Amino acid sequence: MNPFLRHRLALCAAPFAVLAVLALSGCGRTDGLGAGEAAPSVSVQPRPASVWPAWAGKSSEAPGADAAARQPPPQPLRGLPKVGSGGLASMDVRAILRADPRAKPLADREMIDRPGQAGLRPPVFTDLTGDKKPELLVAADTESGRNVLVVYTEHGGKVYPILFTSGRNLSVETIGPDLLVRTPCADGGEQAVRFHWDGMRMSTLSDVKNYKKPMDPKGTPALKETPSPKPSRPPVPSDSPGGH
Question: What are the boundaries of the region Disordered (predicted)?
Fold first, then answer.
């Protein structure tokens, strides 16, 4: 063979040899931990932090942050007595619901203690704003099968509505100070919305939908996860409940 041609063939074969070595050594492996590897520790979900704040402008804001900032801050409910030292737990839950125009139709429903009935679930108190004072969570189950979740906070002796959401077969969980609301989808999948206190209200931190895919060759249904994070950190007006 011509020496010049043999030299060119050797040069062309070299990159393929390197790729073969990398493939065999597992450099491109994405299937998780290997034998003997320790699992990573769970850490707090990171939030965006600008490297050059002076150059950040609005580009550092998460999608939807500007729209959330334009929303008016929650207004205190009228017609309620001043919240005392006992906090929201010392208040009349039905009176709070009657003072809230959106939740007023739920105020006179019977209290229920198990699923499958229409009425108000037992109220729950948990700190969602980080001020060591528990918020009030009220859920109602309706005859149509829909569920309503309302959350209230207290600031300066006044009661503020900070979340109102509804859906069918709501499952409500807490993740640290956040709320995770799950609802089943019509196709057998699930939607999970995570709400986080942003200084004014419980705003959407993430909205993840799991869509049911067609059967794979083995006949096993699989779920396709489509996350759409929408963290919102709007500024806190001086007259809002964010002054905790």
Answer: 55-83, 208-244
